[in-house]
Every structure is written in structure tokens, then in C-alpha cells.
């Protein structure tokens, strides 16, 4: 398919871009192909009954009225009603034609947007954690613990970057070390299994903290992810310290598994607020050791660079890059795009 034939992929400006997670929704407007995205607006999903209400509030008083939208949502994009995984909002694109006055709507998975950001952002928005130099054009992986655990691949083919969305955050995760086998029986299960999200997200960190406490017969006292992170980083709570160490180790193992799947010589990218906040813990060594401990491919793993994306609104940056120049990316819109 030629780039010329793909010009139909362009949406009419101004374009509303939105990164909708389980806790926060972030929006901005891209006026034209030669302008950066406007001032971002961030709202809490719990503050609005519907995504339409949230967007109307964001647009209230704005002199720019978007004609189209590119929305990235935390959940699989299927059908006419798109439910978010960790939020009660349901995206109904056809309804948005009347409620928001839009004429063209594209809905992506939120980690597709994070994958787009890997291409859009420069080195100044990356913090490297070991490994060699990235191989240009090689496969990449993006993952990020947040309200849930998001995962996406990124491959380069036919001159374009192609994001590969998925639900990798729900892969099984299991014990390996002697201590793991003591702690894992106390980790809360979901329908009888421990998936990545039972450990590698905000509530998963609290889940892990409680499991470590119960393993040693202690009463867990911390209830929020931020509390566990703070107590672990300042060393004030030994249970929190061990919980964060286990969290980081499991993140390294999972990142390494995904890197093997995609043979990610182009790099592995950790994104989201949790990764940014625990950057000191990620640099201590157990993350990298767990990432590389993949016999018989330790040498391959050691060559792969890992980056923490430090841009506070990375997904919006990726969506803005797509809105301005969609032919840079190989995104199959198919039944994920609605037009009047």
C-alpha cells in the first residue's frame, strides 16, 4: 500500500486527542499538522459519569471545537460499545457524533498510544537502565504498571512503525526463588490465578506488600500504593522494602519475557507514573538481573537496552504524532474508526 493511498487515514483538524486510563483521562487538541498539541487537560475518571461528560467539561470555554478525535482507552477496542477494563466508562463513538459534534472518531488501545510515544519522544525523555545500544529498526516492547499493567509491541516494516496492542498484563506470573514460594501463596488471586496485574500495578504493589507481611506473620498497615512506594524508597518499613524489591524483580522477569517474544533489540520501554516514581529502585540491580536471567539467552538479553520514559504525558505525545502524520505509522483502523 502506498503512502499516497493512506492519506485517507488523516483525520480532519482540529483533532481532540485523549489518553483515558483507569484513574485519569488526559486530553488536548491538535489544531493542524504544523502545530504542537495544545495545553493538556487532566481529569479524574471518577469525577464524571461518562466520557462524554468529561470531554464536554474539558471543552467548556475552549475557542477551538474539534471536528474529530483519536482516543486511546485502557481496554480492548471491540464493537460499538467499548468498556474500559479498570473504569466504569463505556465509549460509544456513534453517540459522540451528537453529544460532542464530532464527525470522525478513531479509538485505539492505550498502549498503542504508548508505543507511538516511543517513536515520537527524544532521548531527553528517556532514562536508560543498562544494556547496549539499540538496533535501529529492530522490535521494541512497551509496558507500564499503572491502574493495571499495559503491554504493547512495536515493529518496523515497510517503512512504518506498527504498534501491536494486546492484553499482556494478564499473562500468568509465578514464583521462582525460595522466598517467592513462601510469599506467592499469600498473594491475592483472581479466579484462581496470579496474573501480572495481581502484582505489577498499583493495587498489585499493595497486594504484594500484604503478602510479604502475612508470610512473616505481621499485620499490614499500609493501604495505598504511594504509601508503600514512599516507605520502601526511604527504608522506613522493611516489609515495604521487600515488597518493592519483589515488584521490581517480577517487573524485570516480565519485561524480559516480553523482550524475548519480540526480540526487542530496539529496546524495552517502561512507561507510566509508577515506573517514574520507582526509578531509584529500578536502577539498584535486581531489575536488570531478573531481566537478563533468561538462559540460554542471557547474552542476548544483556545487549538489550531498557528505558524508563520520563515524559509526564507520553501517550498524548504519541497520539499527537499520529494526528499530525498518520502515514508514519502502520495502524489498521478497520472497525475502530467511525465517520458520519
From TrEMBL:
Q: Where in the cell is it found?
A: Cytoplasm
InterPro entries attached here? ATPase_NBD (IPR043129), Bacterial_glucokinase (IPR050201), Glucokinase (IPR003836)
Residue numbers binding ATP: 18-23
The record's annotation in Pfam families points to: Glucokinase
Keyword ATP-binding (UniProt):
yes
Asked whether the UniProt record includes ATP-binding among its keywords, one would answer yes
> Example GO molecular function term?
D-glucose binding
What GO biological process terms does the UniProt entry carry, in alphabetical order? glycolytic process
Q: Name the catalysed reactions.
A: D-glucose + ATP = D-glucose 6-phosphate + ADP + H(+)
This protein's UniProt keywords: ATP-binding, Cytoplasm, Glycolysis, Kinase, Nucleotide-binding, Transferase
Question: Principal place where this protein is found?
Answer: cytoplasm
- State which Enzyme Commission number(s) the record gives: 2.7.1.2
Please provide, in alphabetical order, the Gene Ontology terms of the cellular component aspect for this entry: cytosol
Q: Which PANTHER family match?
A: GLUCOKINASE
Which NCBIfam families does the UniProt record give?
A: glk, PRK00292.1-4
| Family affiliation | Belongs to the bacterial glucokinase family.
Q: What name appears for this protein in its UniProt entry?
A: Glucokinase
Q: What is the name of the gene encoding this protein?
A: glk
Amino acid at each position: 500500500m502506498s503512502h499516497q493511498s493512506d492519506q485517507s487515514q488523516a483525520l480532519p483538524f482540529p483533532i481532540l486527542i485523549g489518553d483515558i486510563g483507569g484513574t485519569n483521562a488526559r486530553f488536548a487538541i491538535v489544531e493542524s499538522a504544523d502545530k504542537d498539541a495544545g495545553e493538556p487537560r487532566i481529569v479524574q475518571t471518577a469525577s464524571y459519569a461518562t466520557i462524554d461528560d468529561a470531554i464536554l467539561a474539558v471543552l467548556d470555554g475552549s475557542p477551538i471545537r474539534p471536528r474529530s478525535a483519536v482516543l486511546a482507552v485502557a481496554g480492548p477496542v471491540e464493537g460499538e460499545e467499548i468498556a474500559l477494563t479498570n473504569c466504569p466508562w463505556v465509549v460509544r463513538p456513534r453517540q459522540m457524533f451528537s453529544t460532542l459534534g464530532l464527525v470522525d472518531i478513531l479509538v485505539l488501545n492505550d498502549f498503542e498510544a504508548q508505543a507511538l510515544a516511543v517513536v515520537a519522544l527524544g532521548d531527553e525523555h528517556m532514562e536508560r537502565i543498562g544494556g547496549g545500544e539499540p538496533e535501529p529498526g529492530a522490535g521494541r516492547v512497551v509496558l507500564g504498571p499503572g491502574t493495571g499493567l499495559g503491554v504493547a509491541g512495536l515493529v518496523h516494516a515497510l517503512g512504518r512503525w506498527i504498534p501491536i496492542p494486546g492484553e499482556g498484563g494478564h499473562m500468568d506470573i509465578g514464583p521462582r526463588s525460595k522466598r517467592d514460594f513462601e510469599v506467592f501463596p499469600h498473594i491475592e488471586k483472581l479466579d484462581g490465578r496470579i496474573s501480572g496485574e495481581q502484582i505489577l500495578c498499583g493495587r498489585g504493589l499493595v497486594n504484594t506488600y500484604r503478602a510479604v507481611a502475612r508470610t512473616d506473620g505481621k499485620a499490614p498497615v499500609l493501604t495505598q500504593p504511594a504509601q508503600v512506594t514512599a516507605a520502601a524508597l526511604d527504608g522506613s518499613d522493611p516489609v515495604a522494602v521487600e515488597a518493592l524489591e519483589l515488584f521490581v524483580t517480577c517487573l524485570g522477569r516480565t519485561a524480559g519475557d516480553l523482550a524475548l517474544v519480540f526480540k526487542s533489540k530496539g529496546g524495552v520501554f517502561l512507561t507510566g507514573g509508577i515506573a517514574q516514581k520507582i526509578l531509584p529502585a529500578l536502577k539498584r540491580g535486581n531489575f536488570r538481573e531478573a531481566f537478563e536471567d533468561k538462559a540460554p539467552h542471557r547474552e542476548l538479553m544483556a545487549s538489550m537496552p531498557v528505558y524508563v520514559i520520563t515524559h509526564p504525558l507520553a501517550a498524548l505525545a504519541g497520539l499527537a504524532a499520529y494526528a499530525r502524520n498518520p502515514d508514519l505509522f502502520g495502524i489498521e483502523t478497520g472497525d475502530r474508526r467511525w465517520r458520519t
